[in-house]
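ARCHIVE CARD
Drawer: 12
Card no.: 0347
Subject: one protein chain, sequence and derived structure
Cross-reference: see card 0346
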Amino acid sequence: MRIGRLVTFIVVVWLIIGAIAVWQRGYFKEADANCASAGTIAVTVIAGPLNYAGVNPKVDCEVPQPSQ
């Protein structure tokens, strides 16, 4: 039971550190609300402390346009 709590604590701290990295990089301030910015924010949060080890995840995606 204690191992589960420890793992949960580590995951929560990991994600908080990732959210801090997103905030420091100013991703929340960007006016563009698109697939690429949402993906970059998500990947940066998931990368957590790795952001401070030099990892700089970016997502580049294009939404398909409707046929004419």
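Annotation on reverse: Helices lie at 2-25, 35-47. The chain has a mean pLDDT of 82.
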